[in-house]
Amino acid sequence: GSTIGILGGGQLGRMIAVAAAQLGYRTHVLAPDEESVAAQTASSFTRADYHSHIVLDELASHADVITYEFENVALAPVTHLAAKVPVRPGAKSLEIAQDRANEKSFVAELGGRTAPWALVTTRDELHEAIARIGAPSILKTLRLGYDGKGQVRLHEASEAEAAWAAIGERPAILEGFVTFSHEFSIITVRGLDGTLASYPPPWNEHKDGILARSTLPAPAEIARHWTEAAALSGRVAEALGHIGVLTCEFFATEDGPVFNEMAPRVHNSGHWTIEGAETSQFENHVRAICGLPLGSTALTGTHVEMENLIGDEADRWPELLVEPGTHLHLYGKGQARPGRKMGHVTRVKRG
Ligand code: ATP
Ligand code: MG
Ligand code: MG
């Protein structure tokens, strides 16, 4: 069989490796992590950072295709690999999604709505941005933020200096605060032949900047934006030449769907697809990067709910395990810490 190389060692890589194994592929994980939870389910593992050409060439020599499970892998190793073996999704998807200014401009050019925003690279630019966008607003580091880390809310203009210090005086964007009723995501998959498919949108509820729950079907406030948001996501995937899963996050507002950010990969808000969709996001990602036909994205039940187990919430596993109709996933991470994603549960109601 063929071998899929996976850059990144977290739970998303772990779940890609499980889906790949089911379709008969071997997986090789490359990650710097001392303990990689993806390595536990992959066929093999190299612990190394992404910058050694020796390590990259070794991976390229025995992988038939390479993918990644997080978007902060540097561009240089990806372009190095791509010269030797197909990397899917490609470097362009990474380049756009790694940078909040790039992703917002890219999506706006394709007709998407975004919050008003401004690039901020100096203290003076922050003051100019606040004069233009006002408060409340959010200052987000341009790169590397996740789970609400690397962002600060400004309730009023006087908080500018504190916010600039709080994000470490790094390049950032200032974003106007969006008034929304709900958040949702569109998980799109684009096959090697350009075929597009996408899942019904989950309603995503966050707690402390971290996804807490995804629920389907989404309420009417989201459903009315589904067609527009899915069409935009499809245009984004096409314009990127994206192969594999692409996730776009949206706010549901009175004016229509407002694009927040994208991830060029499988996504936490798609974990419900493992039992709640006919083909999981992980399997469809594998199918896409391996050039197989995509599978159905239809719901398997009338109601699906995914709940994240964050920090010590995972201690509830014994009761969740015996709850009828509940699918428990634990990621095999050693130490529970506040804010750390330890697992999730999915409940599918049929009829
Ligand atoms: P993720 O873990 O999803 O990658 P992130 O750290 O990249 O998160 P965002 O998704 O940009 O951060 O923001 C985290 C959350 O903060 C959003 O899901 C939303 O609840 C809130 N938020 C972000 N931007 C805005 C905005 N402009 N207006 C209102 N709320 C916002
Ligand atoms: Mg993000
Ligand atoms: Mg987000």
SSE topology:
Elements: E1 3-7, H1 11-22, E2 26-31, E3 44-47, H2 53-62, E4 65-68, H3 75-82, H4 91-97, H5 100-109, E5 117-120, H6 123-133, E6 137-141, E7 151-154, H7 160-166, E8 172-176, E9 182-190, E10 196-198, E11 203-207, E12 210-216, H8 220-223, H9 226-240, E13 244-253, E14 256-263, H10 273-276, H11 281-289, E15 303-310, H12 317-321, E16 326-330, E17 341-349
Parallel strand pairs: 1-2, 1-4, 2-3
Antiparallel strand pairs: 5-8, 6-7, 6-8, 9-10, 9-13, 11-12, 12-15, 13-14, 15-17, 16-17
Helix pairs in contact: 1-11
Name of the level-1 CATH class of the largest domain: Alpha Beta
H/E series: EHEEHEHHHEHEEHEEEEEHHEEHHEHEE
In spatial order, strands of the major sheet run: 11-12-15-17-16
> How much beta, percentage-wise?
25-35%
Give the overall form. globular
Bound molecules: adenosine-5'-triphosphate, magnesium ion
Description:
This protein has 351 residues and is α+β, with helices and mostly antiparallel strands. It has 3 domains: 85 residues, 3-Layer(aba) Sandwich (Rossmann fold); 61 residues, Dna Ligase, domain 1 (2-Layer Sandwich); 168 residues, 2-Layer Sandwich (D-amino Acid Aminotransferase, Chain A, domain 1), CATH 3.30.470.20. It is built from 12 helices and 17 strands. A hairpin with a 2-residue loop joins strand 13 and strand 14. The longest helix has 15 residues. The radius of gyration is 20 Å and the shape is globular. The two termini are 39 Å apart. Bound molecules: adenosine-5'-triphosphate and magnesium ion (2 copies). The site of adenosine-5'-triphosphate has 17 residues, from strand 6 and strand 14.
